[in-house]
What we know:
By secondary structure, the chain is α+β, with helices and mostly antiparallel strands. It contains 15 helices and eleven strands. α6 runs antiparallel to α7.
Amino acid sequence: xxxxxxxxxxxxxxxxxxxxxxxxxxxxxxxxxxxxxxxxxxxxxxxxxxxxxxxxxxxxxxxxxxxxxxxxxxxxxxxxxxxxxxxxxxxxxxxxxxxxxxxxxxxxxxxxxxxxxxxxxxxxxxxxxxxxxxxxxxxxxxxxxxxxxxxxxxxxxxxxxxxxxxxxxxxxxxxxxxxxxxxxxxxxxxxxxxxxxxxxxxxxxxxxxxxxxxxxxxxxxxxxxxxxxxxxxxxxxxxxxxxxxxxxxxxxxxxxxxxxxxxxxxxxxxxxxxxxxxxxxxxxxxxxxxxxxxxxxxxxxxxxxxxxxxxxxxxxxxxxxxxxxxxxxxx
Length: 331
C-alpha cells in the first residue's frame, strides 16, 4: 500500500481526468437514435433520456453513511434505472493516530449512531482492531470501480459491513484484496489497480470534489472540518444532476422525502412498481439490516421482523448477529 502521508499525487489533489477513465466534466445527458419507419418517407428522432446522475459522497468507514443505507437502497428500488450512482470517496480520516484519544471517542460515537439510526453497528472495532486510516479503503473502492459492473457498490457495501458490523481491520492490502475476492472481482486485476498511480490520482480527484464546498452549503453551516486540509462536505452527501446540468444537492443527514424530492427535481421518475417481498429484496441486495427491509419493502418494524424470523425458521434466511442488532442474508 502506498505511503499516503508522503504521496505527492494526493497532496496536490489532481485536477485532471485520469487516462480517460475518470471524467470530471459533464457527460452528454441525452442520446439520440434515428429510427426509419418502414414505408414512411420521414425519419423520426427517438430520444432516450440518460438516467439522472447521483454523485454520492461518502467514506467506507462513515457511520452516518451506513445509517443512510436503507434510504439509498429504497431509492435504488423505487427509481430503478432512472438513477445512476457514482460513489465518490471523500476520505474521512487520513491518520487517526494523529489525534490522541480518538478511538474511545469513535467507539462512543458509533454507539450513538447505532442508537439514533437503528442500524446495527459493532463499535468494538475501535477497541480490538482499530484502523489507522480510511484512505486505503477509499482507494480500494476506486480500484473496484475499474472493473465492477455496478460502479463498485457491492465492494463498497462489503467493506462497510466489514468495518461497521464485523470488526474487520480493513486498512491494509491483503484484507482489502480478500474483500475483493468476496465481492466477485478479478483479484489480480484488483491488486494491480490498488497499487497503481492511476488509482491514487482517481482518489485525489474524489478528495478534491469532497473539499469543494458550495457557498450555500457553507452558509447553512454544513461544512465540516477536514482535519488540517480545510473544509469538506458532510458525509453522506448526494448531488442529483439532471439533463439540464442543474445540481440538486442533499448534504448530510436527510430524510427519504428530501432525497426523493431532489431526485424528482432533477428529472428522475419512480418506476411505479409494488414494493418487493422480503425474500425478493434479500436476493437482490444480499445481506440487509432489519431497517433496510422495512424501508425497501415498506413494512413496519414488527411485520418485517416477523417475516424475517419466519424465513429464518424455514431456513431461507440466515440471521447474522451484530453487537447492536441483526443482519439478514438469503441462504
